[in-house]
Amino acid sequence: MQEDRINLVRPQMGTSRALTVRRYGKVGSGPKAYFQAALHADELPGVITLHHLEALLKEADAKSEITGEIVVVPFANPIGFTQYVDMKPLGRFEMRSGQNFNRHYPDLSPALIEAVASKLTQDADQNVAIIRAELRRLIAKSRKDSAPLTDLVDLRLTLAELAIDADYVMDLHCDWEAPMHLYISDHNWPDAADLSAQIGSECSLIAEISGDNPFDETFSRPWVELRRVYRDKFPIPMATLATTIELRGDRDVYDDYAIKDADNLFKFLQRRGLIKGDPGALPDAKCDATPLSGVDRVMAPHGGMVVFHVEAGEKVEAGQELGYVLDCETGQKTTFSSRTNGVLYSRIGIRLIVPGGYLCSVAGAEPLPGREGQLLLSK
Ligand SMILES: [Zn+2]
């Protein structure tokens, strides 16, 4: 294992930040996997999971069982880690810009399409190597184009540089109150069905483009766009599997979950040939993929307090009463429901709600009217 600290651009004179990066296996020895946790800095289930995964990786490394390259950024957001207000960590948005830490990553697709136009061949493996070389060049170029660099942009580009040529990109997040679920490109499905089954995902959401460039799509989207443009002329595999894994809710920081989750990720790496050993039989899948455009986001009809009648992870019917919002001053009490049958896979973690505030999400099997363009929640 090799540990590096990468200094980030200073946010201001008199202060500094750095990213810790640990590497297992050997560069270029086989497939590359990239893991990061806490890009939303108040989401800690991924941090404890990587803590346990790294214990397994160290053991495998000592026995020379790592046949690929595995890069781990155990906590990906030193900016967000320092944002505390009123005794609460605020890690989803950068406080200075108001920007979501998991949006606004570079879309390298347009430049990539041009850059590889005269280089692609009839050999799929050769094309993957050519495309990855261009992706490395283009991400370095985006850094030059971003001057003067802020610490937030530097963080985004540094993380993207570490993952840009990986075969597997695993961005570990969590929801507020939720069962295990994941987001992934529909071009990675059903290839990623083994990952979904191995980690016990109860809701696997697929979309081609989900909007506002989240981290994982920096790595999947270039392949999607290239395949669309060149599919009749050149063989281009969907060479990168990039996913956002939501490790339940933000308070689900427990060893029993994290040890099992780490073990499952380790087995996935074994199954995909990055680590020697038998991962055993694949567990039965708990869900099939459903479209992100089939998610009904249920919002509060007015302000007040929310009282839920269903737990996160339950299957619900369209029109079923999921709970109510109560304005105790006026006595207004309004029940709410979903437009679709499906699994209620996400529930807000607070109970004091503003008008139009987010309440919960239900994942249905069919796209819903009006669900296009921006498919993720908020900025
Ligand atoms: Zn998150």
From TrEMBL:
InterPro entries: AstE_AspA_cat, N-alpha-Ac-DABA_deacetylase. One of its GO terms (molecular function) is metal ion binding. Its cofactor is Zn(2+). The keyword Zinc applies. Pfam families: AstE_AspA_cat (PF24827). Residues 30-107 form the Succinylglutamate desuccinylase/Aspartoacylase catalytic domain. Keywords: Hydrolase, Metal-binding, Zinc. This is Succinylglutamate desuccinylase. It comes from Thalassospira lohafexi.
